[in-house]
Amino acid sequence: MMLKGKTALVTGGRGGIGRAICARFLREGATVYAADVSEAGSLGAHDADGTRFIHLDVTSENAAKAAMAQVADDEGKLDILVNAAGIEIEKTIEDTTLEEWNLSFAVNATGTFLTSKYALPLMRAAAKSGISASIINFGSYDGFIADPGLAAYCATKGAVHALTRAMACDHGPEGIRVNAICPGYIDTPMLQSFFTGDGSGAGGKSIDALQQAVRDVHPMRTYGTPEDIANLVNWLASDEARYASGQLWVLDGGLSAQVQQMRL
C-alpha cells in the first residue's frame, strides 16, 4: 500500500472526482478525511466507506481553521492535502454577474488558498519525519487554453496554476511538495451539467450526440473518468513522487496536444 500510515484531507471529497480520490487513498492505506459542504455531495446518497467526513465550506476562513483543528486533534499531522473542490459557471464575462465572478474565485482560488494556508503547520509536522508532505491542487486544461462560455472558470484555473508554482517555491524548503492536476473532460456531474448548459454550444443537438462529439475530438476518442484522475493524484501523494513539485500535470487524453480543436 503506497500511503500506509499517511493522513489525507480531500476538499470536494463527496463529489465525483473527490470520491474517487478518497476511495483510492483508502485502498492505499491512508486515513482519509472527506471535506465537503454536505455529506451526500454532488453524487447524492453516500454509503459508509471508511472516510471521516468534515463539513467544510472552502470559502470560509473559520471553516478552514476548524477543519484543520479537527485533523490536528485527531492525528497531529497532515501528509496529503487535495484541493478538489470547485464550481463552473458557463457564461462569457458580459453575461457573468459580479456575484458569480466573485463566487467562482471564492471557491476555486480562495478556497485553495485558505485550506492550504491552514494546513501548512500540520504538513510541516508531517515533513519532520523526513518524508515530504504533498499538496495537490486542481487546475484545468482550461487554465492554458479556453472553452467558450467559461470565462470565470478559466480565469480561476489560471490563478490556481500560478499559485501552485508560488507555493512550491515557498514551501519546498520545508519538505512540502505542491503540484496541480489539470484535467480535461472528465465524466462527473459537472461535465453532465456542461452538456445541458448554455456554454456547451449544443445548438439543438441531442445530449447523446454532444457527448459523442466530445469523445471524438479527443485523440483517444474518449473522455476521462474520476478514477483516471485518482490514479495520478495517488502517485503525486506518494513517496514515489518525492522529486515532483511545482508542476502542472495535464491529464486530458491528448486533447490539448492538438493544433486545432472542435468548438463545442
TrEMBL record:
Transmembrane segments: none annotated. SUPFAM superfamilies: NAD(P)-binding Rossmann-fold domains. InterPro entries: NAD(P)-bd_dom_sf (IPR036291), Sc_DH/Rdtase_CS (IPR020904), SDR_fam (IPR002347). Keywords: Oxidoreductase. Pfam families: adh_short_C2 (PF13561). PROSITE patterns: ADH_SHORT (PS00061). Gene3D superfamilies: NAD(P)-binding Rossmann-like Domain. Belongs to the short-chain dehydrogenases/reductases (SDR) family. This is SDR family oxidoreductase. It comes from Roseovarius pelagicus.
